[in-house]
Design a protein that fits this description.
4-stranded antiparallel sheet; 3-stranded antiparallel sheet; 82 residues; mainly beta; single chain; 0% helix; 51% strand
C-alpha cells in the first residue's frame, strides 16, 4: 500500500491575492479516487478532507504555499504550487 499514492490534480482559480486550490486525490496505480485524505496548507490553519470522489477544495491559498497531504495508510507528503 506504500506505493499506492497519488496523483494530485491542482487547479488554481485566479483571484487578486488569494486563490482557491481544488484537486482530486487518486490512487496512482488503479486511478480511482481516494476519500478521507487530509489536505492542508503547511503552517496555516487552512485545510480540507477529500470527499467520496477524492475531491477537495481550500480557500485563501497563496502562490508559494506548500500543500501537505496525509492519509492513514501513507506517510505524510508535501506538494507545492508553482
Amino acid at each position: 500500500m506504500k506505493n499506492l499514492f497519488v496523483a494530485v490534480l491542482l487547479t488554481l482559480s485566479s483571484q487578486l491575492i488569494f486563490s482557491q486550490v481544488t484537486g482530486t486525490i487518486v490512487d496512482s496505480i488503479e486511478k480511482r479516487p481516494i476519500q478521507y485524505v487530509n489536505v492542508w496548507i503547511k503552517n496555516k490553519a487552512l485545510g480540507s478532507t477529500s470527499d467520496h470522489n477524492g475531491e477537495f477544495s481550500i480557500d485563501k491559498a497563496k502562490e508559494g504555499d506548500t500543500l501537505m497531504i496525509s492519509y492513514m495508510r501513507l506517510n505524510q507528503r508535501r506538494y507545492w504550487q508553482e
